[in-house]
């Protein structure tokens, strides 16, 4: 029973984390309409990708201090459940669900889309809201692959918060090519500064030894690459790229890559 | 790991009853029942979401929106007759910004009212209202959807 009580507390924390991380999205109108309108095949791909991502995240920041595969799978599934149930409960409370008949495809899409950020929040909460950080030892040992994975999750998470909004497209329309390049430079610069210069907790010091060029090529450049890929993927998932001219897609990707780069840079802080 | 560390002082003061069952299994393998339950619930949620979305993505038909507009109730108000309508999309794709129109004839000059519904998913229903000066029940009311925008 003692173990149950401990797990129960961890679960309650997970709900708290999911709530904190996903309520901005749950209260965003675009998320509701996207939940209905997103092409089902893309939503399916998104959901199928989210499960291995949660598994990986559980490995680095699970809400239980364990490192075994069975636990990671259980944690990842529980986190998805937390995100899903929380989204369903809150969206129902907000009166978003049930407008087109009970249990429709549209409602399921809304809940499923919001469940993923909620699940990320549930897993991250283990570290953010929990006492101590059981996974810090592991994270300092995370290899290049793990590092890249964490950056991708950080990028996804921050980009997801703004990707559904109309503003992303509007900003892309308003910007000229010069401004796009400027924003790109700013993103890379901030990514580098956040990781190596500002002294946030959790930033990596050991790679600094290689000098500016090495850290830039070894971390900042791949970090921005990850941010660009994540941004493009999100835009595609939300159907923002359909029928749009290539240069406009590029500008939109650069715009979204700005928050994504910040997310990648602070991944160690947030995730 | 932390669990065993924390329970150690408890086993010292409490009767040593708790220790044997914990020791009986290897300590690394005792996953609390609650964890299994919540993971099972999570699995069901994931299967429901992926199952329904996948079923729709792979097998759902993709016919264009076909919108039927149906009168549900007429309420006389001081500001005109409110005709509540249901717009039902029988097609296999969602429609956005659906313009519905009602033409009331039979009482002198024909009267037109229209409304725009934000979104009607496939095989779903949305509600709206049309306001007329004359009683729609007395004349001939023709309801139809005039057009829509592609969703997303």
TrEMBL record, chain B:
<keyword id="KW-1133">Transmembrane helix</keyword>
<keyword id="KW-0472">Membrane</keyword>
<feature type="region of interest" description="Disordered">
    <location>
        <begin position="1"/>
        <end position="30"/>
    </location>
</feature>
<protein>
    <recommendedName>
        <fullName>TIGR02588 family protein</fullName>
    </recommendedName>
</protein>
<feature type="transmembrane region" description="Helical">
    <location>
        <begin position="36"/>
        <end position="55"/>
    </location>
</feature>
<keyword id="KW-0812">Transmembrane</keyword>
